[in-house]
Amino acid sequence: MGRPPQSYKDAGVDIDRGNALVKRIKPLAQGTVRAGVMGGVGGFGALFRLAGLGYRDPLLVSSTDGVGTKQKLTVALDGHDTIGIDLVAMCVNDVVVQGAEPLFFLDYFATGRLDVEVATRVIAGIAAGCKQAGAALVGGETAEMPDLYAAGDYDLAGFCVGVVEAGALIDGRGVRAGDALIGIAASGPHANGYSLIRRLIEHRQADLAQPLDGRTLAEALLLPTRIYVRPILDLIGQIPVRALAHITGGGLYENLPRVMPPDTRAVIDASAWPRPPVFDWIQAQGAIAWREMHRTFNCGIGMVAVVAEPDAPRAIQSLSRSGETAWRIGTVVPFAQGHGERVVIEGLPGPCGPRDTEESYPVRSS
Known about the structure:
Layout: H1 15-30, E1 37-38, E2 47-48, E3 58-66, H2 70-77, H3 83-96, E4 101-111, H4 116-133, E5 136-144, E6 154-165, E7 180-185, H5 194-204, E8 211-212, E9 215-216, H6 217-222, H7 229-238, E10 241-246, H8 251-255, E11 264-269, H9 277-286, H10 290-296, E12 301-307, H11 312-321, E13 326-334, E14 343-346
Parallel strand pairs: 4-5, 11-14
Antiparallel strand pairs: 1-2, 3-6, 4-6, 7-12, 7-13, 8-9, 10-12, 11-13
């Protein structure tokens, strides 16, 4: 007897499922089209025309990122509708901090066995994020790779390109002592620190249905990353912004020095903004030291703008008009290398804050 004929589908890759997904997502991508887009989803490469956008000396700014292990929690909690927003946010927020307008976005979706329904929900979230950012979803890649991913699991990556006039590039070189630090509210942990969060959930056998600040703990942990593009572009159009920092992994300690001259230090007052209760819950479950909290999480500040002291009130007003909540959280001061840290956070309580007791929020006993 001869061997039975084999096919790609027998090996676990179903081309028909992939084609069905492309058919579903084409209208989603079409809904994000903006000036400059040429063609549509389905070609070998996406085309974008810069001419006609009004830039005299354009610089392209690019960023690529993923969503980390928040995606694992998304799968466990069936939160596929918003993880795509996280993906877009992690890229476009990194582009806008240089003063750039996001132009287009591409995604990469990889899985062991393609579930067309789940993939459509994820990519619908990506399209929604692109709309928030004003970027076009011009293409992407869907990869079905049996045995590489566990059943039901998938991985995400994104890539964004933006543009800024060369003379309007924000690179932090204008930051000086005396400048004001304006913190913009985060929606929650965004897409950072979820390896620790998932570890705490598992070890404490946390009840994800427990109430927390008007929603469940699960909902608080799945809130998508805020997309700051339009409020920041509005702010830049009204006042000179000297630097912008997207507060991701590493928190304020690691991200602010990336946009500040080496002879400056950021002094921050932690009592200047209310910390979202989800961070109280996280800190309580792991008895996490304050420094570790601020090096792992944004702790309620998703973006920081550095402006001249006299412009601070107008900056906060502009952000408020754009729907953001912002506070004056600190000041830039002189710094001599070798004399302490580049970021100092003052006003922190003891090792765990006064609200950080295990009784604050109910958990199942381990």
